[in-house]
Structure prediction request, 276 residues.
Amino acid sequence: MDKKAKKVLKGKFSSLIVILIGALLFAFIFLPIYYIVTMSIKSQAHVISGEFSLFFFDISFDAWRETLTSESIWNGLWGSMKTASISTVIAVIIGTLAAYGFSRYTFKRDDDLLFFILTQRMLPPIAIFLPYTLIWRYLDIVGEWYNLIIPYVLISIPITVWLMHAYIDNIPIEYEESAVVEGCSQFEAFWRIVLPNALPGLIMTAMFNFALLWNEIFFALFFRNRTLPVEVSAGLQYAEITPWPSLSAQGVFLMVIPATFAFYLQKRIRELPITF
Prediction:
């Protein structure tokens, strides 16, 4: 076999390996999603029978009917939308302004302070939970939806600062300097120059924070808030009596909303005008 044939054979073998690895990764990522979707359209009797089937089974929409008519699920959905949306907006505003300050101004030990902000994301949730539990009990607001706003903002700001700091660093400062020379104030330069060019990064950061807060359950559970993850987890019981189809339908319901929202925004990001 000549060298050219060996090279072609080696290239085909490498391509086959890449395809196999890609197929394995695809199965590893999407098989659990497929399984939970199919379980949501099975009957409870079929699930607890122990019969394992991915493709051939009797379809039942009882779980979806129960999920979509459940008052607790819709209350949880509304609670998650309120807390995740408001907290995301507040965290993005504060985090973006802080990131702009770190990017455009130099002060003593600024890198250390920036790293310190990031380390706050590494704090265990229990370190935040304990003091706030005492505060909420003192104020008698345990169970109120708005008591999640402060802890949610606190856990979202560090990653917002770091993501937006990296994005703003890539916007040439000369554009702002030109705007200031033309008579704009520093805030006007930020509003008219930096913010429009940072909008794609701003949206991506907001999407990341929203998904993080949408799926958060620790604070919501212990602060007695009725968010969607809490309502879904309430269905967990013993294996024999847990309504697995209904729980699967609720799980699909839980993950479809942020995924759809992210897909919609991702398409819109591509259409945003960049003024570089």
Summary: The mean pLDDT is 78. The chain has two domains: 3-62, 64-269.
